[in-house]
Task: structure prediction
Amino acid sequence: MVIVTSAAGFYLGSLRSGISPFNTGMVKALGGIAVVTCGASALNQVLERTTDRLMRRTSNRPMAAGRISLAHGLIVGFLATFLGSLYLARATNPLTGTLTLLTAVAYVAIYTPLKRFSTINTFIGAFPGALPPLIGWTAARGIIEWPGVALFAILFVWQFPHFMAIGWMYREDYARAGIRITPTLDDTRYAARSTVIQALFYATLMVGVSLWPFFLGTAGVPYAAAAAVLSLGYLWYTIRFAGILRSPDSSDAGERSSRQPARDLLHASIVFLPLLLAAMMLDARGRLLF
Result:
């Protein structure tokens, strides 16, 4: 998803510059971003190798399963993160290299440790999580501009219903590992209520945020229509997600049924974002294919 959203940002930024997005610059930018992303992932697994062993969904990760040593993970993580950022600074521009490095540092050094101490980690982690499309934009343009910020805002808002669904589905796993997120709060009914409220707030906000590129002139009326339909659909699945409130702490059968709305919202979120970006790219102003 990092590569997909970065590519969208680069594509739209290239069109704003009046050049074809299909050039060697895109390959260099996406290659560097991919390397840094891999490095940040490795360092994340270094820090979470103990908690990853406690969760079924992560217990088979290389470091958690012991297939890769601590030294191996550290070396790969640091080298990929810093060399990838340096490469981006030289191959694209210093701003892109700096933003990419800051994203990795915020993800690894702030968000990851915070997961053990406070539920605010979800909000903090949404910032580095939303930067890839802005990084793609700066790789093409060399500056931060409002259309790039709009892409950042879309990804920032999108993450909350998406992650609340994941958090509710795997709340037992997260609780077992001692990771503090809203769905794992001690009072299950309060946890469900707070999880739903956050998801609904951001899904409602998405309706307006998804239209921001239209008002900025990045895309036209066809995109605005598609964005309205997609964001209302996202909101609809989030409203259905509120069904978890009916039986948040019931028997095993009830728990399985309460996970279904979360699973449906997760699937909807995974479909929503690529479709929204595709609609924006297809209707982008100044399209230049060759």
